[in-house]
Design goal:
Layout (H helix, E strand, L loop, with lengths): L1 E6 L5 H12 L4 E6 L7 H12 L7 E5 L10 E7 L5 E7 L5 H7 L1 E6 L15 H14 L10 E2 L11 E3 L2 E9 L5 E6 L10 E4 L2 E5 L11 E5 L4 E6 L4 H5 L6 E5 L1
Parallel strand pairs: 1-2, 1-3, 3-5, 12-13
Antiparallel strand pairs: 4-5, 4-6, 6-7, 8-9, 9-10, 9-15, 10-14, 11-12, 11-15, 13-14
Amino acid sequence: MVITLLSDFGDVYPASMKGVILGINSDVNIVDITHSIPRYDIRAGAFILMTTAKYFPSGTVHIAVVDPGVGTKRREIAIKAVSHNGEIHYFIGPDNGLLIPAAKSIGTIEVYEISNTNLFQKNISCTFHGRDIFAPVGAHISKGSRIEDAGGQIFDYKELDFGKGKKVNGSIHGRVIYIDSFGNIITNISRESVDFLPGDELWVGKRRVIFGSSYGFFKEGDPLVLVGSHGFLELAVNMGNASKMFGRKQGDEVIISI
């Protein structure tokens, strides 16, 4: 059985979550997706979880915590996601939209409010639900507890939607959904939305760019557009930083003219 962890905690804090998990299920394999999500950036966390969760085996429990509302009235939730071929993934975390894109990328979902305190740590910190609620609930599910035991099913959970790029008068309009550590600008324009071929000339604002299949076909410092490994159109600079060159940040509009 596998449990993944994703958070904006940096170092130190994830260790106590792992300790709680192993105290409940010592046979589980814990995989850190990342603990370097930008602080409080729910959308960035949701994107990374969405693009990584599907590569784990059926039965994996994903515990994700980017939670600026910890200790408030926001709910804790557990999700069961079932793919078209019957594979099951579980998602545990706050009800702030963080889990939803990843869960829906797997398939149909059932969402439960976590309310069964018997699954929690004995002493609950108001500032560390990752350790005291999410980690033990995920560990119990990995050990065989039913997700229904966590609490009642809900339907008014908080949504998070990256939207979709669209064609407008010969251009493609989208938005920046993530900027990675290389400075690549990842948009919400999906692979299916474009029919570009390598070598096609495009324009982003007043800057001419070429569509390519990979970074290495371009000279150092050259801008390009390509479909990244995540399946979305991205703006990049070979061995450079596209976010600085194009002056874009998360949420900004991107218009690509043909």
